[in-house]
């Protein structure tokens, strides 16, 4: 059993051929990807299968969805020990206004936010927008 199969099984996901391929595709990208990009990469695959796989990955904390303000959800692989918990796993995302790429800045955690009593946070999203290191080096 290879490393990807082990990662999927640890998260309770059966490692089918398509799931392994989608995981590999996402792992080779150093940025968040849209469902359309995944569909284009696997043109002959059933779109419903691809969509279900991403939903399964998201439910099992294998990927997280990023709302970067473009109106198109993007997905990125979670870190190995991530449970997508509001208190410890959330990090900043950076969206480049030039190349339109969104990346996870996993070393930069979102600080704890004290909410009024009775408020229960379920998700926090912090997106910094600007020019990425690749575009600013040009």
TrEMBL record:
Keywords: Metal-binding, Zinc. GO terms for molecular function: DNA-binding transcription factor activity; transcription cis-regulatory region binding; zinc ion binding. GO terms for biological process: negative regulation of DNA-templated transcription; regulation of secondary metabolite biosynthetic process. Its cofactor is Zn(2+). The keyword Cell inner membrane does not apply. Binds 1 zinc ion per subunit. Zn(2+) binds at residues 96, 99, 132, 135. PANTHER family: HYDROGEN PEROXIDE SENSITIVE REPRESSOR (PTHR33202:SF22), ZINC UPTAKE REGULATION PROTEIN (PTHR33202). This is Fur family transcriptional regulator, ferric uptake regulator. It comes from Salegentibacter agarivorans.
